[in-house]
Each structure stands twice: as structure tokens, then as C-alpha cells.
Amino acid sequence: MLEQRIEQQFIDSADLKYQSAQALSKPIAQAVGAMLMCVTSGGKVMACGNGGSAADAQHFAAEFVGRFERERPELGAMALSTDSSILTAIGNDYGFDHIFSKQVRALGQTGDILLAISTSGNSKNVLAAIEAAHERDLIVVALTGRGGGKIGQVLRETDVHICVPHERTARIQEVHLLVLHCLCDGVDSQLLGEQENPT
Known about the structure:
The chain is of the alpha/beta class. About 55% of the residues lie in helices and about 10% in strands. α5 (about 125-135) links the parallel β3 and β4.
């Protein structure tokens, strides 16, 4: 019984990835283009999210700054969920809704990108970060699910929305991780050329 349940998890995850491939390939490619322009112009990608999405933001930043699958020059990226002193100071003095937006206003410069991750599309602190990014003329790459929520309503034409067509948080997060890997691979392939059968 348990083994069947586990097998079904794999099947459901694989099915959603197959279903999402065609729908998400275009916005992912747009996001790759925006990120490539950003980092080759000396800019950085600032990533934010809560819970599992915070972990995804850190995962992305690590692979950008370090490497993905091939050696290359370091790329500018940072996760806004990692400095406990900044998070607790802002959370205590201004409220949790401001923990990302104040960092975007302090650190964001024209040409940078905000990578905003929210499975529901309704995270208040991510929405506030998007508002701050727009004030600073940053492009926003938003990863959402469930139809995009409020984030889908506030994005501009110059932003990129990658919305996973599903309702379940775990499935959305699994596709988000694949999307982040596609972003890293796409930027690397544009910088370094195509590579067959990466190891």
C-alpha cells in the first residue's frame, strides 16, 4: 500500500513535468534571455521566497555564484532569505511583509533581476518585493503556481511569469526546481555554447 502511494508520487510528478514542458518553455527561455543580459552587464539576480521557496532561492543563488554543471566565471546572485540579522531586524521593526522589499530597495540597481518565488502567488512579502523591484526598474522573473495569484496581476509586460499549472504545493515546488535548473543550464549554454550529454 505504501509502496503504491510512493510510486504514484513519482508518476504524478513526472506527469506534471510532461504537461508543463511546452507551456513553460517559452517563458523560461525569456527569463534566460533576461538573466543573460543582466549578468553580462554586471548585474545580479536577487532571489526570494518563503519556506521551500526560500530554499529554492538559495539553491539557485549557489548554482549561479558557484557553478551549475560546467566551469565558468562566477555569476552575480544572492538569496534574500539568508541573513538572519537583516531578516530579524526588519521583521521586528517593520513586520515580516517587508523583509524582502527593504533589501531590494537597498541593494537593487537598474539592470538587476528579482527572482520572486511563491507557489500560491499570494505571498505578501514577495508581492512587496516585486513592488520595490518595479520602483527600482528591475525586471521580475516570477515563479508561481495555482494560476499565479496576486503576483500574476501585478507583473508588468517587461516581467516574465512562469506559472506551473497545478494546485498542489509539492508538485509546484518540484517543477520550480526543474525550472531553476533550466534557467542555470540556459544561461550556461548561452555563455559557453551547447554541450551534449552534460555529466
